[in-house]
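3.2 Worked example (two chains)
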Amino acid sequence: MIILAIKKVELRKEISKQLKIVGAEVSILDFKNKNFLKDLYNPVISAIVTDAKIPTIPDATTIDILNSFSNRIPVLVLKDLRSQQKSTGKIMDFSSNITIIDLGSEAALKGVISTLAVMNEKGAKGAKEEYQTIPHYNIQLPSQMLKENGALGIVTIDASNFSKLGVEYGNDVYVKVKEVFSAILFNMWGKKGAFRQTDLIFRQSLNSNTYVIFMNRSRNKNSLPLPGALEKIAERLSAFIQRELWKEIFSQSEERKIPTYVRKIPLVGVGFCGVINNPCIDSHEIIEKGLNASFKAAVVQPKRTRERQRELMQTLIQSEKMLYPKFQGIFHLENITKEIIEESEKLNSIGPLKNQIFGFESLIRIDQPSVDKDLKLMETMGIEAKYLRPDILLDMAKSTKVALELDQACLNHAIINSDNLPGMLMVNILPRNLYYIDKLAYIFNNRENIMFEVSESEAINNFDLMLKARNHLETLGMGIAADDFGKGFSSLERIIKLKPHIIKFDRSMIENIHADKVKQAYVKGMVIAAKILQTVVLAEGVERWEEAEVLQQMGIELIQGFLFHRPEDAKSIEEALQTYTVHTVA
């Protein structure tokens, strides 16, 4: 029997109604009744749900009574923490055995119902349809499982790193990511490849973003999973969770539940521990020690994921076929007309723009079939080859300390595959590689007409070395472009000091510039400054003719974007240029 001692009538009615649906026996306790203590100590009571304050007795007495009960049966305390802290400045000191549910949360009722459904005998058998969300943790539940089973497998999920999102994007984003993550775990419950419906998952505490799964009896024996099985389960869950998070990040904008500007989510740790019952030791103590050990293991697990990512990056870097470049055309803007663009779109070919070509930018890509075929380790990493975009690759390379090596591999692929492309080859490079460009001379094979793009979103920590590299490149027939101008570390002072041969405006400065007077004024000013510096301005990310037309009127020399050319492999570009004959559009 579940006792409800809740003052709010509507809340009490709703909880009672939901519990009866799942077959629970419910009794309402009236604290105004002088015999309420006798009713409270009824031996058939299986759980208690109560307000934080009992109006007929002092707070200290309430705490003592409920703390005492929490040593034997599950106790849920419902309270609005925000209003309580505002009025008293503190939270009542309940035992850690008590589950506290914040009524100030929108999902509070679902949490109450799900937690009580687990406490109900029928719910504990694994009927997931009885739960509305992930239940809240109460130590009495795994304690009972331990006594019944003789042993328990414990898997913990530590997503506390999500707090970094609150620092970077604000608390609203952090809360939304927590909600999405909780929904992912709830949907994993009973799903093939995740964990069984008869296992129990709980939100570990009121404010933390950590979860715990208690593995029910082994599929093979009424005991702990076999040696090594828990570790495999933890690894499988880790990979499953990471895949689900990547799916969210790469879902279509209208389907995404978190803001599109959130491009990555911190790694989630998954730990494990097995415990066995010992009648000479309090079961609560056994569970707590098991949880602590599991959470310690969860801290280590992301390090293993990082190590696998490092192995992946090293394999990609050394492979001759898993990485390959596509090339996007860069064009002289002055003589491009709308008619030329329309013909290019109609033919789906770069051919009509061949007389306007300045060069091509190399953009690295993943050969997905090769990675899927040759790297079975991707299955345990929690990321699929289709998600390995250039920005993801670079971020992974940075976090695994192989960014320089990846950068060098991309340079090598760009040079090898661009021999027959006309004009300038533009390639991205990290400042630290550019400082020692002579040591990478073997990659370039005495080739000239290379423009190295140094991202303005990267910090340049040694300007003297950068200036020396710039001057040295000129002697080799090469140059420097300031990439992504308009974001990150970009500034006019940095441009004046570096004197790059090309300034590339970031697409954020170009998008809808035809309708934005502020952007127009800013870009006009930079065009004037660039002429004084004898630097060429390139606008990238152009997707509309209206944008190109405004940029053309401003005197922008070079242009790049999907409006003109979508990235292609070098062979396709060469064939298009060879087969197309330029003619005058009437």
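3.2.1 Second chain
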Amino acid sequence: MFRALVLGALIVAWIGAGLFGHDPWKPDEAYTFGLVYHILQSNDWLVPTLGGQPFVEKPPLFFWTAAFLANATEVFLPLHDAARLASAFYVAVTLLFTYLSAKDWCESPLAAPLILAGCLGYLQHAHQLITDNALMAGMAIGFYGLARTSGLAFGTGAGIAFLSKGLLGPGLLGISAIGLLLFREWRTRAYLRSVLVAMIAFLPWAVIWPLLLYRHSPALFNEWFWINNVGRFTGEAGLGGVLDHAHYAKALVWFAFPAWPLALWGLWHDRLRTPRVQFGLVTFIVMLAVLSFASSARTLYGLPLLMPLALLAAAGLESVPEWLARPLRILAVVGAGALGLALWLGWAALLAGVAPAIVESQSPGFAPILEPIAFGAALAITALWLFSGTLALPGRWLAGVTLVWGLAMTLWLPWLDHAKSYRGVIADMQRARPKGQCVTARDLTEPQRAMFHYFAGIRAGGPADCPLLLWHTPSIKPPAVGEGWELRWRGTRPGDTKEFFWLYERVRSVAALSWFDRRPGAGGDPVTRS
């Protein structure tokens, strides 16, 4: 009973740590919240819009969920914190269906979600306001449907994945379903029947919103479907991360730790004799191959790879030798303990005003104060880690991860937010901005567009005759703004050397402006992919 209580408290602490108490951070959180904020401000639930301009990079399911939860809880929480409840919801769904997939397949099915939560690559992203958490939930439900030959769950999971990030999720699930037919254990009438049911269950998710979007604007539908789905995968759209077909294979070494050593042992010991290992191996190979084949890669896109590895690792735990388990236990206890102690001592030094120069340089001007709620939460997380000594390996590992992450997201969160948030630099600009005057924004990136809209009400573009011009540059060199403008303010976030903002005020009439300032589209705001 005591172990169950500790495990339950650990899972709650792991999910909750980092969700609250900080502004949306760039790149993904900031622009995602901008899309949610548009829904809350305009009640437009059909077309994802960022800072006043359509932004149909992804379907809107996650934005809908975040807007609904933010609207329901804004009395108790700031809007951006309330919106992050969507991530908590989808992460909880992911862990639940990972457990259900492992149930009856593993001696300890709870090990699968514990290992998934303990993966180093999942830690940060699980607490961010990003659509990938809804994708993970859809994939987890789809995996459950495949594993249990439940067509309704398979189709529903594929649908959730589709309305979260487009074609990728259903594609991975569909190819995996075909790949499992390589093994005779999966070539059954029940399995084939479940696939047919899944196709029917998937249809409403795949048809309704795309059809409504097409009826609203064929151009926006084309941008979403062909450019942001097909074009992003093939590279024709010129969007996304770096071109590196070996990116995920290299990143998995740390990204999927500690799941991959246990998964490898499970494969070696089982030799593909059981459906659970066949399922885990096929789904992992399919996802790794498809993701690696894509024209662009980001570690974030590899999150679904962690689920089959967690299932394989849970199977491997049943026969794991001591020579493999012992180093993982030691690392979970000693490594987490050392890092946790360092975080406590470093925070105490910061509070006493004797922090190292590197800490000050990363967040210049930060003034630490003792925050009772964060301090109490840090103590509770530390106590949970101390009580975890009786837990098995997955529980101990999760306790160590929760300790380090929890201390960073309580004691050190104000320091992190001081440098990462746009709130301070925007407030500084607002003090220099004449009250009530409109602003034309130029060259703002997607996260910046979202945050200037949220904190200052500045939308992308703006009327060409606005008396104020806000310009972003990636270097400290002032922009070539042309004649007729006078610099009123400039600024950047603390410690930021890559983003600089300039606020100019018009000092001559529109008729007297140079051609540069009156040219068509001069007040526009080109989209830049983050």
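3.3 Remarks
The radius of gyration is 25 Å.
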